[in-house]
Amino acid sequence: MKKWAFLLTLLCVATATSSAMADGPIIAFGPERQQIRETPILERENRPLHFYGNTVRRRHARQTTAVAPVRPSAIPGLRAGR
User: Fold this and answer.
1) The whole model's pTM is what?
2) DSSP assignments along 3-52, one per residue
3) 60, 65, 70, 74 alpha-carbon torsion, rounded to 10°
4) Buried residues in 3-23 as b, exposed as e (16+ CB within 10 A)
5) How far apart are CA 39 and CA 82, in angstroms?
């Protein structure tokens, strides 16, 4: 019974995460695989179960997001002279 509950949970999680990622096969073969390997890792689409590449792209996107500088006058309770 526990095995079935675990497998059902795993299936639900895999289905939910795969819908958030690009459509397509998890494992590519032939010309498609060659095309993926020739594409730089930061330009590839996220794919289910490709943890390393997805993590690299996610971290790169978070690090390169432009953050607007905050003026001291924009922070409530903080004076520019302090």
Assistant:
1) 0.48
2) HHHHHHHHHHHHHHHHHHS-SS-SS--HHHHHHHHHS-GGGSPP-TT-HH
3) -130
4) eeeeeeeeeeeeeeeeeeeee
5) 50
- 28-64 burial, b at 16+ Cβ within 10 Å, e below that, comes to eeeeeeeebeeeeeeebeebbebeeebeebeeeeeee
pLDDT tens track of the chain, all 82 residues? 777 777 677 766 665 554 455 566 778 899 999 999 999 999 998 888 889 999 999 999 998 876 666 666 666 666 655 5
